[in-house]
Structures are given as structure tokens and as C-alpha cells.
Write a structure and sequence with these properties.
With 452 residues, the chain is an alpha/beta fold. Helix content is 28%, strand content 19%. The protein binds flavin-adenine dinucleotide. Belongs to the carotenoid/retinoid oxidoreductase family.
């Protein structure tokens, strides 16, 4: 099987890269071992909320030079300020064209309301999530937070009391829906996704609308746990029309419906563009010649190799086995790539669990094109995108989704440009220059420098 590009991993990074490449007409396969961080995420996407020195970031695009000083190995610093500035708007467009309704902009962070009613800065949030502008009061006066009886993954009282502390009226309520009784009998099944499968049925949605109407008299906004609209956010608009008041969804404990919807929507987009998804398969080896990947082998395809001009490693971090540990060693399991941050065992963590944790910055070492190094040498046709990259802390810096999306687009643009040059060496001017790093400008093809 021969493709232009094989992508390993179908998290936010793999899907973004696949969509962009497929949009550009590349034949592309994504091999995916299992669920991604999206299944556990808030559904909001962070770009940059704090600098490594702890300072808050209100306008992410304006602090990139400072970030480059503080963290030269950060993926944003590698990609470069100019490239980030254009890729970020490309990212917003890609998500929109995929069918995701998100609010927010890279020019200024906004705050989303968290599952415990606090504010957290972010870049993009699903349209149905309650958000507010930075340093501004909450835009509601009297909110009702409605939980579902027996559903332990969302606590309306905690949310309401946090909202009250922010100066608005807020009340907690619980509804009992008999259509959920069968699920309620088995607490381990009483999860957001299973609840949504029942509440999304038209007959149950009307019952839900009636219950919500009764519990929301005198309130100007309704917060619910994200247990509705598994397939599409349109159902929230429908409910809004039936109840006649704005309805917002707060993320619950995993599995996260808001993240799953992003995953599903992006997968659908990739497939519609002609991309091949190999779900439930796992890459277990690659063939290499002269620092060039020649074959990719997977569990399901056995000794039938997948071949591609370029390979993208988007296998995530420890959470999805993109990185692994043994007692005193951290390693990248597929190719044993060089790691950027790899201190002694005793320095992986800090005792204070709320302090930034060193292990979160572990990840693969790359050149300025985001091509990984192995034993100090670049692998020519391999790129690394997303959480498998080292040099940044997605939690403390609030930049997890941003790094995944922007590194994936940065790589996709390089592959598109590179393959355009290979296909038509005399027409290098067709290459979209504004998003190409210097190292891949036409004159430098074939003599890329390694920058560590
Ligand atoms: C629990 C959790 C919650 C998070 N929530 C947020 C959030 O709300 N907002 C935010 O901005 N950031 C969040 N992040 C940060 C997160 O890292 C990024 O947002 C982003 O989703 C990571 O995407 P990724 O594609 O790089 O990696 P992942 O999502 O980890 O995807 C890696 C993929 O690679 C696959 N894979 C691994 N090895 C192989 C193999 N050998 N063969 C085939 N497939 C393989 C895995 O199965 C998985 O599908 C969260 C991270 C975690 C861990």
C-alpha cells in the first residue's frame, strides 16, 4: 500500500495534519491504536495562557518573542513567530470548515467556565460552553446549574457556589428523568456518553426540555453537564428553542462528550476528503535506509508494509504510549528517538503536585522543521507533531491543543510545499512562502541543517 503520507496516531495532531494534507489532495492514511486525549479533554483548545516563568498571557501572539527567549526549544519557538501568526488563523479556519462551531480567537484569550465553576483561560471553546471575556464580570445575572440525579461525574452545587463567589446569583438543581432509570441502576454505566445516547432521542429530548423549563423559572441562563448532543451541537440549539433560554454545557469527568464530538467531526472531515483511517491498528515497526523511512509495519497488516514519501509521528505523550518509561529510563518506543528533556530519574517529578512537573516537558528532539533526531541525526522523511514533542508543558503553560494543531499544520505545509517542488521543480514559486521555514526554502532542499 502506497500513500503520499502515513500518519501514526489520530489525536488532535494526527487528524489536523491529515485534514490539511487531504485538503491539498495528498493521499493520506492515519493509523490509530486507540482513543486520544480528546476523549478526556474539556473540548476547549488552549493556545498559550502562561509563559514558562508563570506570567499570565492575555494576548498569545504578542508574547511569542518572549517565549522564544524563555523557552527556545518550545515547539512555538521552533516554528517561529511569523509562522505561528499565520498558522493560527489557518487552524481556526480548518476547524470551522470541518464543521466545528468554536468561539474565541488567537488575538486574545477568553475564559471558559470549568467543571467546578472556576474560570480558565483558553483559545477556542465549543459554542455551547459558557465563556466570558478576560477580566470582565460574568455575563449572566442568575444562573441555574442543573445536574442529573445519580450522575456523580458532575456536581451542580460546587459549580453554583463557585459562580456565587464570582458575584452572580446561582442555584443548583437536580432533575430526575425516568428514561435514564435503566442506566442509573448500574453506576459504572451512568456516564456522560451513555446518558447522551438516550437524551439525544427526540422523544426524550422533549421530556428533558419540560423538566428544564420547570427548574429554570426566574433564571436567565441554564448550565447543564455535557450529556447531550453526542453527534452534533444542533441538538443544544433545538433545546434552547424549546426552553426559550440560553443553555450551556459544562465538561464532565471523562469520557468527555465535548472532546469526543471534536474527534468524530474531524474524523468525518478527513474521510470525506478521501483520507483512509485504520482504526484499532497499531504501528509496531518501521524499515529505515540511510535515515529515511522506507516501510511502516502495523499489527493488522503483518508483513505487508505501508509505504509513504513522508511519515508523521503523532503518537502523543505518556498518556497514549507515545512515550514510555521503565524504572529509570524514558524512551520513545517506536524508533527510540532522541529526547529533548531527559533528566535523571529523581528529577522527573516535584513533590508539590501543584508545581509544574518536569516530566510534562519530556518529548522527542527535532530540528527546526520538526523532524526527529535519532542518535543525533535527522530522519529525513519523518516529522513529529503534537504531544510527542518535547520542550513545553501543556498544563502549566496552557498550550496543549495549540501545540498539537499548529505543529501539525506546520508539518503539513512543509510536506505540501516539498511535494509541490518535487512534482514541479521549475515552478518553486507555487510554494506558499509565508508558512515555510527557512530550512525548506527551495534553495535549501536536500541540505537541511540540524538545529538543536
Ligand atoms: C487527559 C488529557 C486532557 C487534556 N485536555 C486538554 C484540554 O482540555 N485542552 C487542551 O488544550 N489540551 C488538553 N490536553 C493536552 C493534549 O495533549 C492536547 O490537547 C492534544 O489533544 C494532544 O493531541 P495529540 O494528537 O498530540 O496526542 P494524543 O491525543 O495523545 O493522540 C495520540 C494518538 O496516537 C495513537 N498512538 C500511539 N502510539 C501509536 C502506535 N504505535 N500506532 C498507532 N497509533 C498510536 C494513540 O492511540 C492516540 O490516538 C489534554 C491532555 C490530556 C492527557
Amino acid at each position: 500500500m502506497k500513500f503520499d503520507v502515513v500518519i501514526i496516531g489520530s489525536g488532535l495532531a494526527g487528524l489536523t495534519c491529515g485534514i490539511r494534507l487531504a485538503e491539498a489532495g495528498k493521499s493520506c492514511a492515519i493509523i490509530s491504536a486507540g482513543q486520544s486525549a480528546l476523549h478526556f479533554s474539556s473540548g476547549s483548545m488552549d493556545l498559550l495562557s502562561h509563559l514558562p516563568d508563570g506570567r499570565e498571557v492575555l494576548h498569545p501572539l504578542t508574547v511569542l518573542p518572549e517565549l522564544a527567549k524563555q523557552a527556545p526549544a518550545h515547539p512555538y519557538s521552533r516554528i517561529g513567530e511569523k509562522n505561528i501568526a499565520s498558522l493560527v488563523y489557518q487552524a481556526e479556519n480548518l476547524l470551522k470548515k470541518s464543521g466545528l462551531k468554536m468561539k474565541g480567537s488567537a488575538s486574545q484569550n477568553h475564559c471558559r467556565i470549568t467543571p467546578i465553576g472556576r474560570r480558565r483561560m483558553t483559545w477556542l471553546s465549543p459554542a455551547c460552553v459558557p465563556t466570558c471575556e478576560l477580566e470582565r464580570p460574568l455575563p449572566w445575572e442568575n444562573v441555574v446549574v442543573i445536574g442529573i440525579e445519580g450522575f456523580l461525574d458532575f456536581q451542580p452545587k460546587i459549580v453554583a457556589s463557585a459562580l456565587r463567589r464570582q458575584g452572580i446569583k446561582a442555584q443548583a438543581q437536580e432533575i430526575h428523568l425516568s428514561c435514564l432509570d435503566r442506566l442509573r441502576d448500574n453506576p459504572s454505566e451512568f456516564r456522560a456518553v451513555n446518558i447522551a445516547r438516550l437524551l439525544d432521542l427526540p422523544e426524550n429530548l422533549s421530556l428533558l426540555a419540560e423538566e428544564i423549563s420547570q427548574h429554570s423559572k426566574g433564571h436567565d441562563a441554564i448550565f447543564l453537564p455535557a450529556c447531550i448532543g453526542l453527534e452534533s451541537g444542533d441538538i443544544i440549539e433545538n433545546l434552547h428553542m424549546q426552553v426559550g433560554k440560553p443553555i450551556y454545557l459544562l465538561p464532565t469527568l471523562p469520557p468527555s462528550l465535548l472532546g469526543i464530538r471534536i474527534n468524530q467531526t474531524m474524523r468525518d472531515r478527513f474521510r470525506q476528503l478521501g483520507g483512509i483511517m485504520m482504526v484499532g491498528d497499531k504501528v509496531n515497526g518501521v524499515g529505515m535506509e540511510n535515515n529515511h523511512i522506507t516501510h511502516v509495519y502495523s499489527r493488522n497488516h503483518g508483513d505487508i508494509p505501508l509505504r509513504a514519501s513522508n511519515v508523521v509521528l503523532a503518537t502523543g505523550s505518556f498518556f497514549n504510549n507515545g512515550l514510555k518509561t521503565e524504572f529509570n529510563r524514558v524512551y520513545e518506543p517506536l524508533l527510540d528517538l532522541d529526547l529533548l528533556e531527559n533528566p535523571e530519574y529523581g528529577q522527573w517529578t516535584r513533590q508539590n503536585v501543584f508545581a509544574p512537573q518536569p516530566y510534562l516537558k519530556f518529548g522527542v528532539q527535532t530540528d527546526a522543521c520538526l523532524r526527529p533526531l535519532k542518535a543525533g541525526r535527522v530522519i529525513e522523511n519523518l516529522y513529529a507533531a503534537g504531544a510527542v514533542l518535547g520542550g513545553y508543558d501543556p498544563l502549566a503553560e496552557g498550550c496543549g491543543a495549540g501545540v498539537s494543531v499548529l505543529s501539525a499544520l506546520f508539518i503539513a505545509e512543509q510536506i505540501i510545499a516539498e511535494q509541490a517542488i518535487v512534482a514541479s521543480p521549475l515552478s518553486a514559486q507555487t510554494v506558499p512562502e509565508q508558512i515555510i521555514p527557512e530550512k525548506i526554502a527551495p534553495k535549501n532542499i536536500g541540505s537541511r541543517e540540524i538545529t538543536q
